């Protein structure tokens, strides 16, 4: 049996975020900075769990997130880094400024992994990565 979701506490909202909630989170982080995610929702006036606030900020609301489609150069880099690092999305994202690990993982799973299998390169001969990359 798995661990219970973090948002099962009575009174916490689940599901899509509203514009009002986004603005409360943005305003709070602009004033107080990132971090202390567990206590942030209550202090910001949000009925969300800390994990939900952190993920919303990291994947959607941060001002330095690069919006728009992945470029051909970014795609090539994702493919090369994946052959070295495997599914270590946060390490790959660290080499693509403005892109989130979640965005890269979703792009890989929806576009690149299928294309790679169609080209007959479904195996990953470079896994596990060399120890210096761990």
TrEMBL record:
Keywords: DNA-binding, Nucleus, Transcription, Transcription regulation. CDD domains: SANT. Signal peptide: none annotated. Residues 9-61, 62-112 form the Myb-like domain. It is found in: Nucleus. It comes from the Eukaryota. GO terms for cellular component: nucleus. Transmembrane segments: none annotated. PROSITE patterns: HTH_MYB, MYB_LIKE. The keyword Nucleus applies. Residues 9-61, 62-116 form the HTH myb-type domain. GO terms for molecular function: DNA binding. PANTHER family: TRANSCRIPTION FACTOR MYB8-RELATED-RELATED (PTHR47999), TRANSCRIPTION REPRESSOR MYB5-LIKE (PTHR47999:SF9). This is Myb-related protein 308-like. It comes from Punica granatum (Pomegranate).
